[in-house]
């Protein structure tokens, strides 16, 4: 399986980078994992709704340019379904079983994802109704993907 994590913005925090690198290394026996960053759009704090939409569209264009037609796309969005770890694992297993071996997860910038990105996504998931920094979501996502592989292989993993 080939997994791409496509994310807006550059990860700067060393502790997050180390955590992500650790999980990517652990997954090397299960899948090839690639992390791709696209630049975020510089924007001041107080944007009008129209300005926010412009930022999301520009970031969305950068994201969409990195996605190939054959990729199964899962957008991380607060309004997405909230699967349990077991259901998330079953979904990844189902995708692999039915020949969807190229999976791309998309993490948007601080304003979220554009309508065009959401329309390109095959599905949307949310790990919580809470809002998390998009940098932290990368770590949470790689941990859950790793956990899914362990669940699908019947291997022990702490609960």
TrEMBL record:
<protein>
    <recommendedName>
        <fullName>Ribosomal RNA large subunit methyltransferase H</fullName>
        <ecNumber>2.1.1.177</ecNumber>
    </recommendedName>
</protein>
<keyword id="KW-0698">rRNA processing</keyword>
<keyword id="KW-0808">Transferase</keyword>
<dbReference type="Pfam" id="PF02590">
    <property type="entry name" value="SPOUT_MTase"/>
</dbReference>
<keyword id="KW-0489">Methyltransferase</keyword>
<dbReference type="GO" id="GO:0005737">
    <property type="term" value="C:cytoplasm"/>
</dbReference>
<feature type="binding site">
    <location>
        <position position="108"/>
    </location>
    <ligand>
        <name>S-adenosyl-L-methionine</name>
    </ligand>
</feature>
<dbReference type="InterPro" id="IPR003742">
    <property type="entry name" value="RlmH-like"/>
</dbReference>
<comment type="function">
    <text>Specifically methylates the pseudouridine at position 1915 (m3Psi1915) in 23S rRNA.</text>
</comment>
<comment type="similarity">
    <text>Belongs to the RNA methyltransferase RlmH family.</text>
</comment>
<dbReference type="InterPro" id="IPR029026">
    <property type="entry name" value="tRNA_m1G_MTases_N"/>
</dbReference>
<feature type="binding site">
    <location>
        <begin position="127"/>
        <end position="132"/>
    </location>
    <ligand>
        <name>S-adenosyl-L-methionine</name>
    </ligand>
</feature>
<keyword id="KW-0963">Cytoplasm</keyword>
<feature type="binding site">
    <location>
        <position position="76"/>
    </location>
    <ligand>
        <name>S-adenosyl-L-methionine</name>
    </ligand>
</feature>
<dbReference type="InterPro" id="IPR029028">
    <property type="entry name" value="Alpha/beta_knot_MTases"/>
</dbReference>
<dbReference type="GO" id="GO:0070038">
    <property type="term" value="F:rRNA (pseudouridine-N3-)-methyltransferase activity"/>
</dbReference>
<comment type="subunit">
    <text>Homodimer.</text>
</comment>
<keyword id="KW-0949">S-adenosyl-L-methionine</keyword>
């Amino acid at each position: 399986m080939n997994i791409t994590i496509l994310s807006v913005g550059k990860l700067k925090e060393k502790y997050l980078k180390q955590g992500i690198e650790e999980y990517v290394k652990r997954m090397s026996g299960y899948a090839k994992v690639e992390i791709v960053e696209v630049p975020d759009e510089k924007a001041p704090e107080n944007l009008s709704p129209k300005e926010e939409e412009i930022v999301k569209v520009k970031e969305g264009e950068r994201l969409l340019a990195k996605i190939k037609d054959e990729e199964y796309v899962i957008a991380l969005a607060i309004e997405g379904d909230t699967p349990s770890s077991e259901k998330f694992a079953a979904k990844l297993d189902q995708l692999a079983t039915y020949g969807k071996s190229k999976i791309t997860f998309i993490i948007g910038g601080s304003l979220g994802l554009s309508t065009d990105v959401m329309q390109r996504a095959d599905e949307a998931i949310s790990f919580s109704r809470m809002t998390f920094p998009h940098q932290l979501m990368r770590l949470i996502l790689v941990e859950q993907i790793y956990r899914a592989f362990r669940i699908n292989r019947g291997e022990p993993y702490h609960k």
